[in-house]
Known about the structure:
The protein has one domain: ABC transporter involved in vitamin B12 uptake, BtuC. 78% of the residues lie in helices and 0% in strands.
Amino acid sequence: MSLTAEKRGLKPLIFIGVTAAIFVAAVVSICVGKYQISPAEIINILSGKADVSDMSRKVFFTLRLPRTIMAIMAGTGLGIAGSVYQIIFKNPLASPDIIGVAGGANLGAAVAIVTISSSGMLGIATGAFWGGLLAVTCVMLLVKATGSTSTSTFVLAGIIINAVSKAVIMALKYFADPENELAAIEYWSMGTFGTTTQSKLLSILPMFLIGLIGILLLRRQIELMSLSDNESRALGVRLRPIRITVLLLSTLLVSSIISITGLISFAGLIAPHISRLMLKRNNSVTMVMSGLVGSFVVLVADIFARIVYSSELPISILTTVIGVPILVYFLVKRGKELV
């Protein structure tokens, strides 16, 4: 058997292994917390048996199951979006905030907290979602004004929008009520799954599915965009409309997630790197693997966020703790390759 055939044979095993790891992490995620639920109780609840306490049943359906599903969705969406950004921008450091999505969502949430805080989490989620879409719209307008469609133009436009968003957020923090609004802005910017409910999950599901399915349908064109612009055009890719469509779909995917969870650092950056390390390539298959790896990373981070301290930690603290060593590893590895 050739080496190529062996690698092809390993792919299904890798996918099966990662999927199994996600399943185990999901079960653990449902079990752990201030109110413990055993795996046997989970089986009894799902099978409809009556010998389960009402409290366990309520915690399972109201808190744990929506939270676990949201963590899987968040990891999948951020991992796939991160892989898409890295492919189309041809930049291994690209992540969901590369074109201002995260910065715009953060600004939208901050505006909602300061101006319509009485509306609660629904107002904050709405502000974050529209903030992300508005940020990308501004990026598109800046790119259109330059008359250039190169990837560097999109990156520079994203940097500008991020800088403007941060400046406005700092101004909002300065004028915010330090006892309520300022704390809410800071906490939201660190991300959490603690506020996830079934109604919130269902509210973003259509937008999440549109973004995810759209990206998967365009996976072939996205893969071809990893080549140079001239090569992509020669292979029949209509760069401008495809690039804009992919960016909008990715934005819809990311905005729908962080409008509920807040900002989640590093997940969209490290998942594609881990996937490429596992599969030894960068294509549409790696993009799917990035979603699976992202799901596992976010699930594990959420589990530790609930068990390492007496009170729940923000999710971005844990994803950063996981992400930094991985990025250091890739930095050292890349440095050795350049020597």
